Amino acid sequence: MFTLVILSLGCLHGLYLSYELIRKNTANDANRMLALCIQCFVALLFFILLDESGAFYYVPHLIGLQEPVTFLLAPCFYYYVRRLTSPAYLPFVRTHLLPFFTAVLCAVPFYLLDAQSKWQFLYGDMYAPDLPAWYLDSYENVFIFGAMIQVAIYLVLSWRRLNTYQIISENNFSSLELINLNWLRRLLLMLGSLYGLWFLDEAIEVNAMACIDYGSGVGCHYDWLVGERVFFFSELGVVIVFYLMSYCGLRQPEIFIQSNQYLETDKPEADKYVNSALSESLAAELCKLIEHQVQEEKLFLNPDLTLHDLACASGHSRHHVSQAINQSKNVSFFDFINQLRVAYAQTQLLAHPNRSVLDVSLDSGFNSRSAFYGAFKRYTGVTPGEYRKQHKRLTENVS
Q1: Quick check: pTM over 0.85?
Q2: For residue 366, what is the domain's CATH number?
Q3: Does residue 225 surpass a pLDDT of 60?
Q4: How many domains does the chain have?
């Protein structure tokens, strides 16, 4: 009963979550793709619910439809990640659907069985006689192995995509509050955890079969490990992820309504320096000129300053400005500007000890108090308040 309740709640909440994703922004194809991914999870939970409740007995022709659906999960989520981290519209590449259609074709012999044979295959003591030997012997194992490999590959590709996006963002913007995808990184970690739970479930199943068939598994004397399981960790994990996504969506609405602000490039700047006409000596000289101009004109006080803005102000190409900063300072554009902001804030904190930290942060070019605290702690090792206290103690000791 516990499993049925959890699965039912998961299905209902997943449907609600996918509906909200589409309703919040009907023009956002990224949200539609995430909604499709969630609906695939819901479909899998629903099939498991039918199995656990014995309802497959009444709808036997639905048996076996869940296997191919698994091959849609990872491509849908990967396209969602690509859509959020790309500067232009990206069509869904049909080759990503090849594993899905392959699974469907391999399952055709089973789909052509009559209702009684399907029910016997799932709940009976003997396999359906009309199935080919290769299907009986290896389809399920090959399916599980193939699905796990596919999901692992797409998780790695999604993670690499996010890392590339982070590098590009820091090389183009001085403020990342409105374009950071930290919440997507957390979502990816959740899905990675689900993958781990899925792997654990399959390992337990394989071990249980080894105990039953050969008596050579691990912990065969534990009934809870070998007997019929009350629930699967991955099933419970999917339900938990649904609720966490809803919670995060309420606290951070950009999960549901994505900004239309994209990066100007879809390739890390460092990859373009190989054929650059700007030598290291020229890059160092250009960096000095840029740094002098930024400090002299206090360009860093503009909270929305971008690499494009700085390139226009300096009269040099965006590519050369980025290369000069990256190679000479060995930092990103984001770090270059925010280090200057923090240095300016340090002088303001001491020059105006009665001013609030929020006022100082806004006057120093930061968009928010949290961004200021994060940058200040990152570059100085202390918070703004601690910095003031340290300076106060030093002046008292000197006097």
Answers
A1: no
A2: 1.10.10.60
A3: no
A4: 2
